[in-house]
Amino acid sequence: MATETHLRTCPLCEACxxxxxxxxxxxxxxxxxxxxxxxxxxxxxxKGSTLKQLHEDxxxxxxxxxxxxxxxxxxxxxxEAFAEIERRLGPIVDAHTRQALSIVIGNPNVHNLGxxxxxxxxxxxxxxxxxxxxxxxxxxxxHVTAGLMWGRPDLFPLADIERTDYLLMLGAxxxxxxxxxxxxxxxxxxxxxxxxxxxxxxxVDPRRTKTADKASEHLTITPGTDVLWLLAxxxxxxxxxxxxxxxxxxxxxxxxxxxxxxIGFTPESIAERCGIDADVTRRIAHELAEAPSAAVYGRMGxxxxxxxxxxxxxxxxxxxxxxNLDRPGGIMFNCAPTQTLAPSEPGGRGFKLSRWVGRxxxxxxxxxxxxxxxxxxxxxxxxxxxxxxxxxxxxxxxxSFPNSAQLDEAFASLDFMVAVDPYVTASSRHADVILxxxxxxxxxxxxxxxxxxxxxxxxxxSKAVFATDAPREEEILSRLALVVSGKPSTSDPMLIHDSVxxxxxxxxxxxxxxxIHGRDREEILDVLSEWTWSEQLIDLKLRLGRFGDxxxxxPDGLTLRxxxxxxxxxxxxxxxxxxxxxAIKTVSGTVELAPEPIMVDLDRLRxxxxxxxxxxxxxxxxxxxxxxxNVNVLIKGKERCTLQVxxxxxxxxxxxxxxxxxxxxxxxxxTAPVEVTDDLITGVVSLPFGWGHGEPGIEMNxxxxxxxxxxxxxxxxxxxxxxxxxxALNAIPVEVVPV
Length: 739
Prior knowledge:
By secondary structure, this protein is α/β, with parallel strands linked by helices. It has 26 helices and 28 strands. Helices cover 32% and strands 15% of the residues.
């Protein structure tokens, strides 16, 4: 039997590491890191080596399912599945309008081409303002502050860790997470290199994480108070005359307003609440200002809190005030190979919040979606506009959204649900129809989302390892969009694809700075006809991107064919380049350090200071999304879904290592085994995210052997960031008692 080697990008987390997959026939015989990948350099984490087990998992669905009247499932054909959706969904829309529909989108969508390129038509087909996603349990504060400060909500600030002299990290554990909103293949290796060349790494975290353990310095902090500490650093920069914006000074506004807004947040005023001495805060402020280059990087621990947007904003204000915004070694911005880098003037439409509000919550939309924490009440509350039917795409809200018990009840009450999911999960068990996508090894891959967050300019395309007759996810989502929009279930999904490609080509033809401005659409489509589905869009974007051939305008430029043939391991175009002021698209044309929504929320912060909160989450290197717990190699060994408690607290609370304790919050309780450890500060306990697979109806048999508990049974849906609507998944008040 022939042995073949396939080069792929791992699609299981944001790191985008290169893999070398060896197969014999239809069997994977080895997976290892691709030593020739110019960015990941052979690095592989435990998750990447499990693509074989995920592909072969007997619990993974390979045909659609319809739920019977008695709650059991039956396997059906694709035609039967879409016909059932047409039969059930149409009457709901006719009786209650499209506002009775909702779509809920999970983060795996940005890890595959179908979700990245074909979700927009499905969202449009739903035709409702009831749009929810995992973004508001994860990253929305970063979108909001990027939008408010430089007018580009998807242009994330990236710590240039390969060139920095000083890295300050808050609420981040990249040695375990592999990076978040900062795509760094082999993040652990790069942190080691950073320290070895004499740079300084300071980690601020209530837990001694693997990242904190190897840092130059670890500062422990009370959960939820990162925002106060960052404000105190800003205060110190002004008070000690350390502000030096540098070359961007003419392009930054609001400096005086920031100084006035932070005048009360002195290091002394926040020291007791944060647990960090005033002299330490001042020292860190001086080190940031005096380092040749420095970057402040914050993530989940300080974004998924009640004041997550202020924390996100404060980090970038510090980067700006110390002259490290858009500076090598500081904070940089990527322009990926599928994007253009044409000269432009600063200024644009800016970024708006609350263009509509939720029916029940009255919370404003952000970036086109409502807060995930409000989904349950939009389903459960009677009245006109109540959500009665739901399209769930690669998401497990009953595990990942706040107050999951309430959401479980809400999903059970729906008139109809269709789920695009490879498993029967805690959420998709409530569906009436499940449409399973192909496995990761049966689809091609290109990282549109994460190449824009990478610390280097990089492009890589991966062919599918195995061929399949099953419909691609692009086809599933396109056909679903047609049925949801009211078209017959027999409609050809190519109608959606042709529309998506034609619209993309027409936009470029109309854009004056495009290399195909004014050219004939059919001529461009003919060039793309070598490919089908997503590959047409990849080729289009590469040809029109910053290194592309422009459909002949630059004959030696990049195309998908050249990327595949000449750079099978991927092509590294080098370090990030300075983007500002051209890339600033606020109405003022400046980086606005004092946007009104943040200034307003600062007033709320002054009246309701955070602190004295108990529960924090944590990540595990072998875990990312809940369905990965169905791989035995990722859950075997010692119990990892434990309640971590400091020894002093264990003695005070009467809980014993290895025995069970109950954790209660305002909305629920769980019982978990205790792990006594001095890895976290007193007064704080920790549970990991993503567990809890023991309920009836979940068909993940390996996960059920180590079910763990669902930490989001404790998360309060009423507490969220006022600016972004992001759920507060950390700094949760709880009570701990022994069982």
